[in-house]
Amino acid sequence: MIKGVVVGLSGASGLIYGLKFIEVLCSLKEEGVVEEAYVVYTSGALNVAKYEVKGSLIEVLNGYKCLNGVYSDGDWSSPLASSSNTVGFIGVVIPCSMDVVANLANGLQYRLLERTMYNIIRTGRKLVLVIRETPLTTIDLENMLKLSRMGVVIAPASPGFYLNPKNIDDLANFMTWKVLDIIGATSKHPKWSP
Ligand SMILES: Cc1cc2nc3c(=O)[nH]c(=O)nc-3n(C[C@H](O)[C@H](O)[C@H](O)COP(=O)(O)O)c2cc1C
Fold first, then answer.
1. Which of 9, 48, 143 is the best mutation target for the ligand 1 pocket, counting ligand atoms within 8 Å of the beta carbon and taking the most?
2. CA of residue 184 to ligand 1 center, whole Å
3. DSSP designation for 124
């Protein structure tokens, strides 16, 4: 049983990855694999959602009744702001922008998303960053190296093609499954075999 999962949605392209992951998280809650599920979204996510999500991102998120809380990055009334409330939690920023990477690598916690994920790092729990940017600068790479050295898992949004994806959903599912493997939540998905 995983005590809690906090999904961070940031201003990188690929909000479909995050929304697919939230869908699966809801099933995991139903199955009793995950106890609590939260979402924190940034203003960057709201901006990118205009181009990638049908309708309002906030309405889409509020439609997931399984979520214990949905917070904007400025909502300091959220319990997630304190590490006493995230004991045993796993963090997944999906998609993760280079801004979030830079903030976390430098200890900046002026937004709820970074504060929450930093709480997870500080308390020695697992944090997965599904980064999306190309190409990458030396600064991006150095920031990721710093985070990797702190135990953060850097999981680029780069789906494999060996399961013969037929559409965008297949590609997005690949990343969801990859993150589930990383957080140890399930192994029921299709896998490559020779
Ligand atoms: C349509 C669109 C796509 C973007 N894609 C990316 C991306 O893939 N990766 C990234 O790091 N930034 C991307 N950006 C830039 C970020 O949204 C921008 O740097 C923003 O400040 C990051 O917001 P955040 O700090 O809330 O994540 C994109 C911006 C737009 C408008």
1. 48
2. 29
3. T
Q: What is the pLDDT of residue 187?
A: 63
Tokens in use for 161?
């093609």
Q: Which atom of ligand 1 is nearest to the CA of 113?
A: 26
Instruction: Give the chain's end-to-end CA distance (angstroms, integer).
Output: 32
Q: Is the pLDDT of residue 97 over 80?
A: yes
| pLDDT(76) > 70 | yes
pTM of the model: 0.97
Of 110, 95, 102, 81, the C-alpha closest to 47 is 95
What count of other Cβ atoms lies within 10 Å of the Cβ of residue 78? 20
Q: Which CATH class is domain 2-183?
A: alpha beta
pLDDT digits (tens, 9 = 90+) for 33-68: 999 999 999 999 999 999 999 999 999 999 999 999
Beta-carbon contacts of 15 under 8 Å, excluding residues fewer than 6 positions away, are: 9, 45, 48, 49, 52, 53, 57, 95
Could you tell me if 166 and 10 are in contact, meaning their C-beta atoms sit under 8 angstroms apart? no
Query: pLDDT per residue over 4-44, tens digit each?
Result: 999 999 999 999 999 999 999 999 999 999 999 999 999 99
| CA 22–ligand 1 middle distance (angstroms) | 20
Q: What are the domain boundaries of the chain?
A: 2-183
